[in-house]
Amino acid sequence: MEREAIAARYRALQDTICMRLEALDGMARFQEDPWERPEGGGGRTRTITEGALIEKGGVNFSEVHGPLAPAAAKALGIAGEAFYATGVSIVLHAHSPWVPTIHMNVRYFEVPGGPSWFGGGIDLTPVYVDIDMARRFHRGLKAVCDRHDPQCYAPYARWADDYFFLPHRQETRGIGGIFFDRISPSAEHPAEDLFAFTVALGEAFPALYEEAASPGRAQPFGQRERDWQLLRRGRYVEFNLAYDRGTRFGLETGGRTESILMSLPADARWRYDHRPEPGSWEAETLAWLRKGVDWIAQ
Amino acid sequence: MEREAIAARYRALQDTICMRLEALDGMARFQEDPWERPEGGGGRTRTITEGALIEKGGVNFSEVHGPLAPAAAKALGIAGEAFYATGVSIVLHAHSPWVPTIHMNVRYFEVPGGPSWFGGGIDLTPVYVDIDMARRFHRGLKAVCDRHDPQCYAPYARWADDYFFLPHRQETRGIGGIFFDRISPSAEHPAEDLFAFTVALGEAFPALYEEAASPGRAQPFGQRERDWQLLRRGRYVEFNLAYDRGTRFGLETGGRTESILMSLPADARWRYDHRPEPGSWEAETLAWLRKGVDWIAQ
Q1: Residues 215-254 of A with CB under 8 A from B
Q2: Nearest CA to B208 among B131, B119, B142?
Q3: B291 CB neighbour count, 10 Å cutoff
Q4: Who among B58, B257, B267 is closest to A267 (CB)?
Q5: Closest Cα partner for A121 from A65, A57, A198?
Q6: Do B269 and A270 touch (CB under 8 A)?
């Protein structure tokens, strides 16, 4: 496949998703910052703020290329002196604690004359775990996966549990989703197949978010729920700054800081040794934040 | 020197500092959490919350020892199968944006039968840079340094600029201070000297904080100052989670998470591509957050 065709389709995906999200939000519009990278390529960072549904979010497209620094090549475990990467990256933080934070990413990476691969995923971080919401979300993801390869949902869901994990808290970031990385074309899944799967994920994203966001968006909430939301956002910040490979790789290799850190919430909170009251919904939520939950079967 | 004597003195330092800070705050008291480490040693985590001056802070003592995991030895660049470490670590976030956040640490590390070293530092992170405050703070630090070694202030101040730096923002965390690490005993500075210097730093800490905190603590402030404080705390979180070696080493080697992350502020904020108005005090503050400012001479 031509990498330019992949980038063009991802760029169009960004347009579609932003349109769908603006319609879903009903109030705020995305603001676009086009940017160029001195070493090659650039992107379109689109952010949305203070909407009716979304408090702070971003839908970023980038297509970057250029020399691959030895340190970056080593970090990636590859030999090569140049790279090409394109993708769409999304994080949406809603006002309401009844609406989960969602993240999506699809990406293509290529070492010219060397290996190439696709990666991606969607995962959900509820403030309060709602089993029905989690089941619907995972079933929706499984349906997209099944159309690509009926064997891929289970390993990709395990991959999300392992990736979106805070080892110092022994907590998953949320109720998981799917995650996959460095999937190179094969006889079974040529590049066209892998590419189509990433596009299908991107196209499924707005409906998956709408399904997770709609039931709670207009429900009233109080200070207790807001406080818990801020504490859970603290965990989101911990994961993104201390562990997320995309964030760390981006910051360390001189990526565009504001585009990378658009993933952070508007506000976050920390309390020393905070423990929710036993038996509360907050405590129940914590108990669900572990690896290996079969959400489809819940 | 006997390591137990070092630990006993650091433990006493924690007591003195907590007493002095309670008197300075005038309202809140420290809460103590003693903890033990299964592999050896433990600590006393002391936190203070919602005081008259301090919004969230901690003064931690720890004395830990045990086997040194190969990954940890490699990260430290040393050969050895066991270690011993003791120290006092402080971070204080005040309510008022006119009061800077302060950090102090003194520490001793030993590989039994191998190398040993001292480290430490104090640095100040104002929400608004006040040149008089910065000058007084650095002069105070220089006085402590000069009593130890008249040559050490300048390199230790440079070390703080290099260490407390956010490369992805090209900003220093604050107006610096001093920082030093892995200073092994020498003919010029035997262990007793280095130890005495760390104790002197700890003893100087309460007065340095009082001097920086007192002018602003009772001054009124409004929403604009509070907003800027929250954004600057976002930077503090970015530094601590993404770069601070102590935090990262602690989290990666299974340290006590709540003791390590007591350094985080109560609340923090992020806004996409926030830029203060040109000519404002906020913009002036940003302009000061760079390496190599000679605060003594300002």
Answers
A1: 230, 234, 237-238, 241-242, 248, 251
A2: B142
A3: 14
A4: B267
A5: A198
A6: no
Please report the pLDDT score of residue A71 as a whole number.
Answer: 81
User: Rounded CA gap, A263 and A245, in Å?
Assistant: 13
pLDDT of residue A56: 98
Domain that holds residue B257: 3-297
Please name the residue of chain B whose CA is at the shortest distance from the CA of residue A258. B273
Question: Which residues in chain B have their CB less than 8 angstroms from residue A269's CB?
Answer: 266-268
Residue B75 has pLDDT above 90, yes or no: no
> CB-based contacts of A45: which residues, under 8 Å, 6+ apart?
A32, A33, A34, A35, A58, A60, A256, A258, A259, A262
User: How confident is the model over A166-207, as pLDDT tens digits?
Assistant: 999 999 999 999 999 999 999 999 999 999 999 999 999 999
- State how far residue B250 is from chain A, nearest Cα, in angstroms: 9
Kind and range of the H or E element at A244? none
Set of chain B residues whose Cβ sits within 8 Å of the Cβ of A251: 167-168, 242
Domains: count for chain B:
1
Local confidence band at A254 (pLDDT 50, 70, 90 cut-offs): confident
**What does the block give as tokens for B197?**
């210097």
- The CA-atom distances, in angstroms, between A17 and each of A14, A122, A183, A233, B244 are 5, 14, 24, 24, 37
pLDDT at res. A185: 97
* Catalytic pick among B65, B95, B103, B189: B103
Residue B271 touches partner A, C-beta closer than 8 Å: yes
pTM over 0.95: yes
Q: Which CATH number goes with the domain that contains A122?
A: 3.40.1500.10
For position B20, what pLDDT does the model report?
98
Structure tokens at B91: 């971070």
The pLDDT confidence band at residue B73, using thresholds 50, 70 and 90, is confident
Residues B112-161: tens digit of each pLDDT = 988 999 999 999 999 999 999 999 999 999 999 999 999 999 999 999 99
Q: B255-270: per-residue pLDDT in tens?
A: 899 999 999 999 999 9
Nearest to A45 by CA among A255, A249, A260, A248: A260
Residue B72: band (very low, low, confident or very high) from pLDDT cuts 50, 70, 90: confident
Mean local confidence (pLDDT), A206-232: 98
Catalytic-labelled residue, pool A65, A93, A95, A103: A103
